[in-house]
């Protein structure tokens, strides 16, 4: 590659959280970085639940709490288990500055501007169609109009990562490895939101929703409060939709009508509907993370910890670790797979792959026992509270006996044992 | 709320040609036709009359679900051109 035109140090495909974190780290270290984004602006093709996490975000943007367009600082995390009509909710409330609700179209745009200020070039409205390979090394990208060359190409092109597939770093995604998420942002005035969610000023609340129209399905709902809107959405594993013949927006409509949820959004007007895939394959579905001249970060690398609703933090930190690896590669002037695989070591030493590995068996267990854990026991939790709160003249002891008996009559004893064994095995794999 | 009303909240810049190209011959032999229900924008409709799949690509949210869900792996799925497609303001 002798004095090629259009040659830069690093090309990053995608200006989402992973791409920007990578780009800003490299630009701050003095590298020439070009970030190519297919949307009109950074964040314009992106959709997520709603929260970014304070600590990892500070690692990339030390100024974000005062300067970024954040919506609300979350002080409450609700876990709502919905039955058909009833619900049980556990609330953890503490103003411990763990996360903020943001809107990608605003936050990513700000983050991209920060990267630009640090010296990165951001090329918007441009789709990378192919990677250019020479002598078994990725040397650049082909957009619709021209070719760009670089010592390293970072794939931050999101969950579908057609580019990673094209160069054989990943196989085709399976329907069980992605969740299809649909969401709506519903406009409500700030006072109404604060009253309904028991908040003041810019405090925010998160609601994680189990069951309801997703009973028995590998699917979860979520709500986030924004400044003057509320986000409601859900994600259901794609194989579930295929097998059950369901339309994702129908499930969302049912969720919105659930008696526990409906009062929270009543009278609101929809600002925007959106959809996106979430990579939920877990540890076992992580693709090959690098090759000669190329590294994969964020959603493109399947880095999502779905049990803890974490994605953007894994994206940002993977982007940062990729950047640090690339800086080492520049020092060595070696962009081979063996040098770039330092990235994988860095990920393994960080919470990113440690957490992914911790939950490596989670999805297998959930897929095989979803009717138990995502339907039967959830119904039993609500049934317990229904029994416990009822005042019907029936002696309490009789109610208890009836409830305990129902656990053993509503589900085969052999299945109960299998459930218990699955949980023990899962806990074992998580804790040891 | 109907899907049409939901889609109406979005800003689109539609291209003149589709970025989604199912192999219409393969579609004829497809039993599940799951693209016609899993798609969050109902881009795909099966026309009994024409015996082919109609692709309302202008409504596409670019999620990629159809490509993965298609049992025939028949959809040639690309991102729309850089200046085209959907723009999320509230993602």
Dominant shape of chain B: globular
Instruction: Count all strands of chain A and give the number.
Output: 17
Content-based structural category of chain A: alpha/beta
How many beta-strand elements of chain B? 6
Q: Structural class, from helix and strand content of chain B?
A: alpha+beta
The pLDDT mean of chain B sits at 96
Radius of gyration of chain A, whole Å: 23 Å
Strand proportion of chain A: 25-35%
Largest pleated sheet of chain B? 2 strands, antiparallel
Helix content of chain B: 10-25%
CATH class of the largest domain in chain A: Alpha Beta
Number of domains of chain B: 1
Topology:
The complex is a heterodimer of chains A (432) and B (91).
Chain A: E1 7-13, H1 17-28, E2 33-36, E3 51-53, H2 54-60, H3 64-67, E4 72-82, E5 87-93, E6 99-101, H4 104-117, E7 121-123, E8 128-134, E9 137-143, E10 147-155, H5 162-166, E11 178-187, H6 190-196, E12 203-211, E13 219-225, E14 229-237, H7 238-244, H8 248-257, H9 262-265, E15 269-279, E16 290-291, E17 294-296, H10 312-332, H11 337-340, H12 342-349, H13 351-358, H14 362-368, H15 370-389, H16 396-409, H17 413-431
Parallel strand pairs in A: 1-2, 1-10, 2-7, 4-12, 10-17
Antiparallel strand pairs in A: 3-6, 4-5, 4-6, 8-9, 9-10, 11-14, 11-15, 12-13, 13-14, 16-17
Chain B: H1 3-7, E1 11-13, E2 20-22, H2 24-28, H3 35-38, E3 44-47, E4 52-55, H4 65-69, E5 75-77, E6 85-87
Antiparallel strand pairs in B: 1-6, 2-5, 3-4
Could you characterize what this model shows?
The complex is a heterodimer of chains A (432) and B (91). With 432 residues, chain A is of the alpha/beta class. In chain A, the strands form two sheets. In chain A, strands 3, 4, 5, 6, 11, 12, 13, 14 and 15 form a nine-stranded mixed β-sheet that branches. In chain A, strands 1, 2, 7, 8, 9, 10, 16 and 17 form an eight-stranded mixed β-sheet that branches. Chain A folds into three domains: 7-50 and 103-171 and 287-358, FAD/NAD(P)-binding domain (3-Layer(bba) Sandwich), CATH 3.50.50; 176-279, D-Amino Acid Oxidase, Chain A, domain 2 (2-Layer Sandwich); 363-431, no CATH class. In chain A, a hairpin with a 4-residue loop joins strand 4 (72-82) and strand 5. Chain A has helices at 17-28, 54-60, 64-67, 104-117, 162-166, 190-196, 238-244, 248-257, 262-265, 312-332, 337-340, 342-349, 351-358, 362-368, 370-389, 396-409, 413-431; strands spanning 7-13, 33-36, 51-53, 72-82, 87-93, 99-101, 121-123, 128-134, 137-143, 147-155, 178-187, 203-211, 219-225, 229-237, 269-279, 290-291, 294-296. Chain B is an alpha+beta fold. Chain B has four helices and six strands. In chain B, the strands form three sheets. A two-stranded antiparallel ribbon of chain B has the order 1-6. In chain B, strands 2-5 form a two-stranded antiparallel sheet. In chain B, strand 3 (44-47) and strand 4 (52-55) form a beta hairpin. Chain B is globular. Chains A and B meet through strand 11, helix 7, helix 8 and strand 15 of A and helix 1, helix 4 and strand 6 of B.
């Amino acid at each position: 590659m002798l004095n090629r035109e259009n040659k830069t140090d690093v090309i990053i495909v995608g200006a989402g959280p992973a791409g920007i974190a990578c780009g800003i780290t490299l630009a701050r270290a003095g590298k020439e970085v070009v970030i190519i984004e297919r949307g009109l602006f950074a964040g314009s093709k992106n959709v997520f639940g709603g929260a970014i996490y304070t600590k990892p975000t500070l690692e990339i943007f030390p100024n974000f709490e005062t300067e970024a367009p954040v919506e609300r600082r979350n002080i409450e995390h609700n876990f709502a288990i919905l039955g058909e009509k009833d619900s049980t909710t556990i609330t953890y409330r503490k103003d411990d500055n763990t996360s903020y609700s943001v809107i990608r179209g605003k936050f990513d745009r700000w983050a991209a501007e920060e990267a630009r200020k640090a010296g990165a070039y951001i090329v918007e409205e441009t789709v990378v169609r192919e990677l250019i390979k020479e002598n078994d090394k990725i040397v650049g990208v082909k957009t619709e109009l021209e070719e760009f060359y670089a010592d390293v190409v970072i794939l931050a092109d999101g969950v579908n990562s057609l580019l990673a597939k094209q160069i054989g770093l990943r196989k085709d995604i399976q329907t069980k490895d992605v969740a299809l998420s649909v969401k709506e942002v519903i406009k409500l005035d700030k006072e109404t939101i604060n009253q309904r969610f028991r908040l003041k000023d810019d405090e925010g609340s998160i609601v994680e929703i189990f069951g309801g129209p997703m009973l028995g399905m590998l699917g979860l709902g979520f709500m986030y409060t924004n400044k003057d809107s509320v986000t409601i959405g859900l994600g259901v594993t794609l194989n579930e939709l295929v097998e059950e013949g369901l339309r994702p927006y129908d499930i969302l409509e049912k969720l919105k009508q659930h008696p526990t949820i409906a009062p929270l959004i009543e009278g609101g007007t929809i600002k925007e509907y959106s959809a996106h895939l979430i990579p939920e394959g877990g540890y076992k579905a992580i693709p090959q993370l690098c090759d000669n001249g190329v590294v994969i970060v964020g959603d493109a690398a399947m880095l999502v910890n779905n049990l803890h609703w974490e994605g953007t933090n894994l994206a940002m930190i993977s982007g940062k670790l990729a950047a640090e690896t690339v800086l080492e590669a520049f020092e060595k002037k070696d962009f081979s797979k063996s040098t770039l695989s330092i990235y994988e070591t860095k990920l393994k030493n960080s919470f990113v792959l440690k957490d992914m590995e911790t939950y490596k068996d989670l999805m297998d267990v959930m897929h095989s026992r979803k009717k138990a854990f995502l339907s039967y026991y959830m119904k039993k939790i609500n049934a317990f509270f229904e029994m416990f709160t009822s005042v019907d003249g029936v002696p309490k002891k009789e109610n208890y006996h009836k409830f305990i008996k129902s656990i053993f009559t509503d589900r085969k004893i052999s299945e109960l044992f299998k459930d218990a064994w699955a949980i023990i095995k899962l806990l074992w794999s998580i804790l040891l | 709320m109907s899907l049409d009303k939901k889609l109406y909240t979005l800003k689109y810049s539609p291209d003149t040609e589709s970025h989604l190209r199912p192999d219409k011959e393969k579609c004829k032999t497809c039993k599940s036709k799951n693209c016609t229900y899993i798609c969050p924008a109902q881009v795909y409709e099966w026309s009994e009359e024409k015996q082919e799949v109609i692709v309302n690509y202008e409504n596409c949210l670019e999620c990629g679900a159809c490509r993965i869900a298609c049992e025939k792996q028949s959809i040639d799925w690309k991102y729309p051109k850089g200046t085209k497609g959907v723009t999320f303001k509230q993602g």
